[in-house]
Amino acid sequence: MKHLSEEELIGYxxxxxxxxxxxxxxxxxxxxxxAEFTRxxxxxxxxxxxxxxxEVPEPGRGYGQRVWNELAPRLKPLRDPANRLSERVAWWQGxxxxxxxxxxxxxxxxxxxxxxxxxxxKHEATPEAVSGVTMREKVLLLAVGEHLGRSEMMLTxxxxxxxxxxxxxxxxxxxxxxxxxxxxxxxxLYRETALEQSDGRIxxxxxxLERVLMDVAHSPDEVTGVQLGTMRQRIAADGILFKLRVxxxxxxxxxxxxxxxxxxxxxxxxxx
Amino acid sequence: MKESTGSPREGxxxxxxxxxxxDPDAYRVLVERHSVSVFRxxxxxxxxxxxxxxxxxEAFLRAxxxxxxxxxxxxxxxxxxxxxxxxxxxxxxxxxxEEARREEPxxxxxxxxxxxxxxxxxxxxxxxxxLAQNTELKGQIExxxxxxxxxxxxxxxxxxxxGCGIEEIAEALNSxxxxxxxxxxxxxQKLRNLLAPLVRQPAEARTxxxxx
Lengths: 272, 212
Prior knowledge:
heterodimer; A: two-stranded antiparallel ribbon; about 75% helix; elongated; B: mainly alpha
């Protein structure tokens, strides 16, 4: 006779076994399985009793009220026509906001610059001449360096934002949130480009940065002191500011190795 | 789910209707009615008060933002529960990823062959009541819970402390019923392997290898 497995016995005890009646019948007939089930049942009863000793702290009287007090300022009426209209306008306006337009322009300029740089270098004849691909790499270094600098500045400012009025008061981080949205759009482009160029180190740090930017961009416009503290902790935990500084310094160093090319790129950028 | 299913659903339905009609204050009824049970769930899933309170806030905010998708015949308590469970999973997953980057793997409580449950057995196996008084053993119980994956922990908490059915847990885990049953099984099996030696009667513990 084939004995019941532990999975079947636990499933039976949970009343979730596929064949509960078949198992019950088997237990009536098989003394070994019955003994095993009795042992398992006693053990699990004791284990669950032990687990029940893990206390859940009482959230305290008036907890629901406290939750509501923190939540209420973040709620907008759901079916207020004026609110919906303004949201719709805000959505469209969002695409034409100066900061976002600037971000799109920067990304577009990068694309044009990379194209021009690549085309311009095709005609250089010496074997040591910088190829189009190399020029594109240099463009990427320059652009990513600036991007990392801007990201570092935004995250540092966010980390230094003070909760001046205690944990319950809301802190407006909408400016940082919008900057994070713009940086996120650029970051994706740079990360993909870095991957295409097999620059794993830059791609990795941009990947880490993307997670942090996404976190900030998707946060509410206003956060409590506690929420801001959590965001700060996440930024600190990722060590992202340190990574940005290290990679930023490395990029500067790599650009410095070919100053002439760098100057040419700077000039090209200005033209674009 | 113990508390929410017992809540007056008619009151919930009325509050939802008013909220959807553009009165955010009506949502207060739902928050005040369900926040304690959502807090308990979140605490058991996250293991600390700070995260639990964040989860409660976020769960009610997300529920509000998605209230138009809520089906009137459903139970609001169950629904917000599911949102809280999902958010706890995301939050703890993110935390664990961050911790894993920082910490050495050896600091984590290992599973399977590397863990010898007998090492956890005290000389005199105490009753569950005595375990509660013993901080060290309580720590061992907490560590046993920490060995569960986030899905296993969620499944176990929803099943054994909140009395949720397999389908409800499956929805929270975004998984099938069969896979959810397996998740519950794995959680129970792990906890049994780690904790059974702690709670066995002294006589049985002796027969398990302690020389007489």
